[in-house]
User: Fold this.
Amino acid sequence: MKKKGEILALIFVSLILGLILSIQFKTVNLSVGEGALPTQRAQQLANDLKKAQAERESQLRLIKELEEKILQYEKGGVENNIYAENLYKDAMKYRMLAGYTDIKGTGVILEINDPPVDIQFGESFSIVDELDLILQLISVINAADAEAISINDQRYTAFTEIVRAGNHIEINGVSTSSPIIIKAIGNASTLESALSLKWGIVWQLRNYNYIVHLTQDKEVEIPRYRRVKDFIYATPVEETVN
Amino acid sequence: MKKSNPKLIIIISSAIIGLFIASQMKLNLELITPVTVKSIITAKNELSAAKIELIELEKLVEQKSEELYALQNIATGEDNIIDIIESDLKMNKMKAGYTKLEGPGIEIIMFDNLLLNNNVISYNDDIIHDVDILNIINDLKVAGAEAICINEERIISISEIKCGGPIIRVNDRSLGAPFTIKAIGDPKVLMAAVNAPGTYGDTLRTIYGIGLEPYIVDKLVIPSYKGIFTFNFAKPMEEGE
Assistant:
């Protein structure tokens, strides 16, 4: 009798153990999602990505080194030559305007976070769906006499395009996603009031439930444009009369 | 002794089994978590974006090396510092929009919907807004436009396009409809960017009935930016920061 009872208890315990195990596996499947694949492919991808990022870092370092050397040569070259020095200053100004210099100055920082997911319906939307709003924002900032603008550290130049690509956006060919951080250099109070005008663009964004932070900053840093732009179709028109 | 042991053995063995199962699960969880179809697709996208960025960076390295080479040649007397800076100035002026450019491209004429009885809900749908022009220009930039202007106002990085009542303000000048947008670039690609079904331009034309007529032009002339621009707030970052 005693032995039978023990065996029964053992059977009972193992049944419960089996149940617990199967529940555990099911929940793991649910929380991770269906279609768990062999890990090899993912690991390979992750390795490739890491390699690409490392290469990117080294390229950026190389570019920085080259630029430093160029700067030294240029500065050394224009010394003791007033004509060259003035020319160099002019060149620097247009380089800044074309977006090929890191710059800093007073301005505003605007951060747009996606609205929280609707608890009742589980719906969510993201700023990447509303490129119109980003384009309008840039236009408003420019109307407030901004001197330079960047979106997620991508300098806004005359060639900057904003493209929707799946669930992220591409700016200057670099993919980014929300939160969108727009930095602008210019008269900080003008910029702020132009943006936060009632019925204005930030008001509109907040009305759509985006979480928007608008702050003035004394040292806004805007990085340079990192793409090589060649003119293939356009040629300058030689002007005969100045 | 042998008779009294089974309980102990069972306890020990179940403890060992428990340990095994726990370690097994921990191991499995670690491996499974990041691997779903979705995460693989995301990783793939990131990888391809990183690769494209690398190609761009390589181009930049090449360009900088060339610049450096030219500068180093000053010492040997092959190049002149003034020539180098002048060409740099010319190139940057071109990129900044301070040069009159010509080349093949497209010209788009946009005008408001002039039909009287066209069953629109709001008069706002009949007229061209800043958003429409911004979107068309963004589409043109995506298609690789090298220079864009609206009614002879060059669009550069600091150009604003804002509705101001009956007119649209561009570069601090007021423009009225009809708008003529010119863009230099590959004419076929530019044409597709505003004309293909599903594009913003096509939607404007077919759904809102706004006039949008693109033409391919073999030789467009795009004026330079007319405003005077000085940096009052922005300063270049010093090296080593």
User: Anything to note?
Assistant: The beta strands of chain A are 103-113, 148-151, 154-155, 162-165, 168-171, 174-176, 180-185, 211-222, 235-236. The radius of gyration of chain A is 28 Å. The longest helix of chain A spans residues 39-78. Residues 154 and 171 of chain A are 7 Å apart (CA to CA).
